[in-house]
Specification:
10 helices, binds flavin-adenine dinucleotide, TIM Barrel, 9 strands, nine-stranded parallel β-sheet, Methylenetetrahydrofolate reductase, alpha/beta, oxidoreductase, about 280 residues
Length: about 280
């Protein structure tokens, strides 16, 4: 058991801002259903370069107004000190107490990188601007960030964010449980003493999952890929197999001392709700 087991377990859910009225209606229902599970907070993603700025704010506002805690993702790439300061003020004015602080990826066609190069600079800036008023979550990559020159440097860069004042980390999703525990051990050797919460991606749709995984560098183990491929368009079998595999992954993580789970809900109720209930959270 690693030192992560000393932290209280925290369970949270992630949404993306809806892109249509239909999507917004669906999200209202998902929010109400998942709120019954009493997650610690709902985070809301943010398009780097500000592409979903309004959508993220509106979704965060709705969650806060319903009496639940919302945590906006805030990516700094393409932003200026002034624009980030204004966004922080806007969020704090509606009672936000937690931010997921990220670098983000520059959208194609956008050249101006703005005032921040990496997420550690954003964490440092938010701490300097707001002191300890906000809890800051940062991203971690047990399977190594795709742009990192090597694993050692990636851990070193993660440690920069912790030293800059992050309170906790959420990982990129993964299906190799050992990658998480190895990463946690490496961080412990660097005296990292914050919760590193596994990000959990339910398996819902095979082609979407492979597309995401190619983009973000998450590996789908061969045996999972091959089985999912063999189901073809049989959605029920994909969902049943996915539920079994991901429940088992979560169980191994929690049994091994992981300090909670962060569910990438994809704005859907059932996959997260089933995992939650299977795990008896
Ligand atoms: P960083 O920590 O800055 O790392 C980026 C790369 O630079 C890494 O390879 C790292 O090793 C290297 N690096 C870091 N610091 C330094 C340094 N000081 N010197 C040299 N190299 C350095 N993207 C979105 O657009 N919107 C979202 O809402 C969103 N939410 C996410 C939530 C989670 C939990 C996770 C895990 C990812 C999320 N992403 C999101 C994706 C994320 O923005 C990308 O993975 C992005 O490429 C890196 O962001 P980061 O904050 O991890 O960057």
């Amino acid at each position: 058991m690693n030192t992560q087991s000393k932290f209280p377990k925290q369970f949270s859910c992630e949404f993306f801002p809806p892109k249509s009225e239909k999507g917004a209606d669906k999200l209202h229902n998902t929010l109400e259903a998942l709120a019954k599970l009493e997650p610690a907070y709902f985070s809301v993603t943010f398009g780097a370069g500000g592409s979903t700025q309004e959508g993220t704010f509106d979704t965060v506002k709705e969650i806060q107004e319903k009496g639940y805690e919302a945590a906006p993702h805030l990516s700094c790439i393409g932003g200026t000190r002034d624009s980030i300061r204004a966004l922080l003020d806007k969020y704090m004015s509606i009672g936000v107490k937690r931010i997921v602080a990220l670098r983000g990826d520059l959208p194609s066609g956008m050249r101006d990188r703005g005032d921040f190069r990496y997420a550690n600079e954003l964490v440092e800036f938010i701490r300097a601007e707001t002191g300890d008023q906000l809890k800051l979550e940062v991203a971690a990559y047990p399977e190594i960030h795709p742009q990192a020159p090597n694993a050692k440097k990636d851990v070193r860069n993660f440690v920069r964010k912790v030293k800059a004042g992050a309170n906790a980390a959420i990982t990129q999703y993964f299906y190799n449980v050992d990658a998480y525990f190895y990463f946690v051990d490496e961080c412990e050797k660097q005296d990292v003493d914050i919760p590193i919460i596994p990000g959990i991606m339910p398996i819902i749709n095979y082609s979407q999952l492979t597309r995401f995984s190619d983009m973000c560098g998450a590996e789908i183990p061969r045996w999972i890929r091959k089985r999912l491929e063999s189901f073809g368009d049989d959605k029920a079998s994909i969902l049943a197999f996915g539920e079994e595999v991901v429940t088992d992954l979560c169980r191994k993580l929690l049994d091994g001392g992981a300090p909670g789970l962060h569910f990438y809900t994809m704005n859907q109720t059932a996959p997260t709700e089933k995992l939650w209930r299977n795990l008896d959270l």
